[in-house]
Amino acid sequence: MIRESKSFIDQGFLLDSAFALELYVNYAANQPIIDYHCHLSPNQISNDYQFKNITEIWIEGDHYKWRAMRTLGVDERFITGDASPKEKFFAWASCVPKLIRNPLYHWTHLELKRYFGIDELLNADNAASIYEQTSTLLKQTDYSCLNLIKKFGVEIICTTDDPNDSLEHHKAFGVNDNLILLPSFRPDKFIEIQQEEFTPHLAELGTIVGYKIDTFSKLKKALNNRMDYFAAHGCKISDHGLEQIPYLETSEEIANAVMQKKAQGKVLNPTDIEKYKTAVLLFLANSYHERGWVQQYHLGALRNNNSRILKSYGHDMGCDSIGDFRQAQSLSRFLDTLDSKNKLAKTILYNLDPAQNAIFATMAGNFNDGSMSGKIQFGASWWFLDQLDGIRNQINTLSNMSVLSTFIGMLTDSRSFMSYPRHEYFRRVLCNIFGEDVEKGLLPRDLDTIGTIVSDICYLNAKSYFNFYSSQ
């Protein structure tokens, strides 16, 4: 039996033509990275954390891998349990050959090659040597957290931060060798009033601002206080991860009444919840506009489906999926309410349901007002769609129903410091799409024009969109 041992990640990976390769090499590969949305740890960045082994940096916290391992029959002890780091890595390595055609197969070998120079196909046979080789390298200063980030030309990182966060690590970091670390404002815990954690989180916010938050007016005041605090520490972006944007006619009085019901321990009905959420989101969106922030909405995830795993291990364990939520009507009313009052901030709409790509692309076009290029964005493919077909479908839909040249490109949306090759992955797919069209005669063989659009999508559009020229 012939078994290939050498990795397939070569210069032409994902690039099917000479034009695509030239486009990638000359216009995409060396562009800096602006990671404008991620879930990396500000603590680890600020303290230049040194990872102990490859399991810690690569498998711990990676719910993509956990989900695949469970599917392949791996016991939870080797996923999130008490097995040793080496045992967990060996369990993962034994899974990798069975993941052919899953994006994890591509990412695994791309990351091994780009971070560690390992040009092998990971499997059970070479797991021990690769574990030792990578763990030895990770102990070197060249493989500290900051040096790993800088290795990929990362210029700006925007983490995802709760309003109650002190931002102590962002303050301590400042600017380090031209790497900028900025917070993003994620107030979802104050929107999801039906959740048990709403009340204690509200109490914590009250402690931070110095008064009890027992009315909707005080909640707005407290959130404004925190937005001012975030802005003072460089924040330019907000973010929301919601099933859908709600919209029911509401008022401050209605939102206040719902808060009182919650405080009294009464059951909130669906209408109560939707009206409260609408009021909070409209208040926040107006506040973002006043500050000149960009607002992001990640829509469509059905989270924590497995109640047993949620109870045993908590959130973000790999038990989320694509939801079939209706998005168009309420999203339209929400954006239109803001636009009609000239209070619609720059907005990025991320879709998780591939069946609704056209809805999101055409919705963004409704509210571009000519004030700037690409004010309302149909955002990059994310989560389950962050793979070959998902990236291609998002780019093709955006091309057909909007203007691709205005696109602000890729982000990691990751908790892993090993995820920066995802930008390379996206850039190769983007260049190959253009290359295919050129080879088919659908586009002119104009390297300069197409190359300029590619470099704009990979870097310059985002830098302009977020006004990062003034960040340093």
Give a structural overview:
The chain has 472 residues and is an alpha/beta fold. The protein contains 19 helices and 10 strands. Strands 1-2-4-3 form a 4-stranded mixed sheet. A 4-stranded parallel sheet has the order 5-6-9-10, with helices on one face. Strands 7-8 form a two-stranded antiparallel sheet. Strand 9, helix 16 and strand 10 form a beta-alpha-beta unit. Helix 10 packs across helix 11, helix 12 packs across helix 13 and helix 16 packs parallel to helix 17. The radius of gyration is 23 Å and the shape is globular.
Write a brief caption for the model.
By secondary structure, this protein is an alpha/beta fold. The chain is built from 19 helices and ten strands.
What fraction, in percent, of the residue positions are helical?
40-55%
User: How many beta-strand elements?
Assistant: 10
The number of helical segments is 19
* Rg, alpha carbons: 23 Å
Structural class: alpha/beta
| Coarse morphology | globular
What can be said about the biggest beta sheet? 4 strands, mixed
Q: Largest sheet, order of strands side by side?
A: 1-2-4-3
Order of helices and strands: HEHHHHHHHEHEEHHEHHEEHEHEHEHHH
Distance between the termini: 57 Å
Strand content: 5-15%
Mean pLDDT level: 95
Low-confidence segments, ≥5 residues, pLDDT <50? Answer: none
